[in-house]
Structures are given as structure tokens and as C-alpha cells.
# Entry
Amino acid sequence: MRFLAPIAAVVALALPVYGQSADEPVVVELYTSQGCSSCPPADALLHELAAREDVLPLALHVDYWDYIGWKDEFAKPSHTKRQKGYAHQGGRRMIYTPQMIIMGQDDVVGADAMKVEDAITRHQKQPRPVALTVARSGGDVVIRLQPKVQMPEGRLLVQLVRYTPKRTVSIKRGELAGRTLSYANVVENWQVVAEWDGAGGLEVAVPAPGGKPAAVLVQAAPFGPVIAAARVD
# Structure
């Protein structure tokens, strides 16, 4: 089952396509819910993507299915807000689950493996307009950015994402009652750590204590193309 919600459209911020190198991961955001009966195939596909080095898959659980009897313990209102933001940016009137947003640009039904792979392949063929490096230093993540080309005007958001590689849930109520399901790369925190104009280099150290996996995304504000991404080792 899909959930559809009306929303208004706004004008999107466009970035020129410079091309991205295949050795940098393609970001795939899955909007899903434990209360959505159509979501398990997309959740399973995200597990497959999580095994690849060339893809950075992230599961963002939304809260608008909670009313049907099962509260998704991973769901956050901020994830629903982000999904709506993409719809605004893309001029779409509806949101739904399961939905994958690839590199902040492509809207694909989350269980459609062929279309997801086609979108990933397209983005792998395009070089990135910025050089992004990340490294841990003590309890911090140090992020360095350098433009490779002259960047268009507009704000770029530098974001740190913390996630858990695998979580398993026994669902007691709702459309998936009685099933035990596992979820890959469950997003726990999504933080904007800096804004960048792309005019020169940027270095920022962000507190990130603990061993939870993390990634850095650079994205046109507020919900435009992802122009660079890297895992934090």
C-alpha cells in the first residue's frame, strides 16, 4: 500500500551537470515505514544496495503510517519533512512509500530494482563538481571541500548523517503484523553542519563521538541535487 499526501510545488534550484566519478558512492534515500505493506521489497532491495561500495543507501522511516496501529520506532517527523521537501522541490503533489530519491534528483518507486539500477548507473557516469574528503580525528569528523569547477550561485548544505547498519523488528500490529523484518542503514540523525558557497575551500570539524557509522553529503539547498558524498571510515 502507498500513502499519498497533497503538497504545493515550488521552483527547484538547478545545478549544472559536471559529471561524477564512479569511485564515489551514489546516494539512495529510501522513504519507508514498518506500517506500509508495500515496503518490505524495497527494504530488502536496500539491504542489497548496502552490500555495494559504489552506493550509499540510507533508510529514512516516516511517521505518517503510525496511525493505522503500529508506531514505527525508527520514524521521525524530520524524515517526513525531508520527503515533502523533495516533493516541493520537484514539483510533485504527492508523497508515498516506498520511495527512493537518488542523488537528490530521481524519484523512483522503491521496489523497482531495474529503475533504481538505471538511475544509479546514470549518476555513476557523471563526474562530481567538488572534491570531498572526510576523516575521523579523535571524536570529530573532519570534512574538507574544494571546488573542481566554478560553482553556480546558491547555498550548499554540508550534512552529517549517522545510521545503524542493521536493525530487526518484530511487528505486532498494523498491516505487517506478525512479521519480523530487518532494515539496512537506518538513519538515526541527519545534521546540517555547515553552509558553503562553493567559492573556495572549506574545512570543518564536527563532533561525532562513538562508533556509529556516518556519511557526509553536500547538497544544493534546501532539497536540490546531491553533488558529493562520502562514507566516514
Q: What stands out?
A: Residues 1-22 have pLDDT under 50 and may be disordered. Helices lie at 40-50, 77-90, 113-124. The two ends are 37 Å apart (CA to CA).
